[in-house]
Amino acid sequence: MIMKNLYITIILSLLISVPLFGQQDVHFSQFFASPMTVNPASAGAFNGDLRGLLNYRNQWASVSEPYTTIAASFDAPVLKRMKGGMFGLGLNFYKDDAGVSKFSNVKYSLALAYHLDIGGGNKNHFLSVGFQAGAIQRSLNYNNLTFHDQWNGVAFDSEVPTIDQFGGNSVNAFDMATGIHWFYSPTDFTRYFAGVSLFHLNAPNVSFNSDEDPLLRKFTIHGGAEIGRGGGNAAVTTNGFSVLPNFIFTQQGPNRYFNLGAEAKMRLQSASKFTNHQNEMSMSIGPYLRVGDALYAVVRFNWLGFSMGVSYDINMSELTAATSGNGGFELSLGYYGNFNSTPSRGHSVRFK
Description:
Low-confidence stretches: 1-22, 231-237, 341-346
Oligomer: single chain
Shape: globular
Distance between the termini: 48 Å
Number of helices: 2
Order of helices and strands: HEEEEEEEEEEEEEHE
Strand content: over 45%
Number of strands: 14
Strand order of the largest sheet: 1-2-3-4-5-6-7-8-9-10-11-12-13-14
Mean pLDDT: 80
């Protein structure tokens, strides 16, 4: 019990220490279900007319107040009849609340991507570049915090003014990001993709006082594939099996994480090849590893344009002494809309 309390004390001390050299952006175990927090070039990079995604994460409830993260995005391909490619537009939002201080990190952003068709119009081969701009807001609630100069020898006296406060309780800053994304789909049931991105290009100052505390730039490399086969004519309802490997590596100052894993996917009904009148029905399940930190399993369902993913982290790091192995629960929801059933609507993109 003493050791667990010691871990909790150390963790909370690190969270409220200044300057925030250990600052790290939010991230999801189901990183593939939150593409616009990974790479701005992913805006509009999917098979359909619009995509809406929602992500929720709850973690470390056994250590302190639960750490909760929610993200939402909306994006769509536009100008798909362009000869050389098409554009993608996207809106992205996330909010992260950490611990008893309710340290809140909120971001709103707009992404613009251009997907260059390098496959001759219908080879489903694209190279994309994207840019993102938006606003970051950080805030902190002092009411639930205590400081060493409030200790009177018996208890913490909240009426005693403290000199340890940050100097303010909120800060706003302008933020920029960019990325490159490659996609290739040689068959209806096989696809490969990879990308690199750089967030916080302008290193915005997120200090709560007059000091300089630039947000550390974040570099990400990611990729994956779907390697599968289908039965019968791909233009009609077919069954099939696929393997979905995925990975992501992110470096932000001294912080880094590396996730990798794979899922086995069973298609109960494939999307129509020419009309997009039918949407895919499938289920996938598989293990993932966040190296040096956690092991987790992902289960995903796709049904007539709707998708749902569930995962749970089992902590494997030194924090296990405080968490008893408990990690984070995560839920992802999505909707993919296909509204035009004619085959002449532009590039025959098979991003999904």
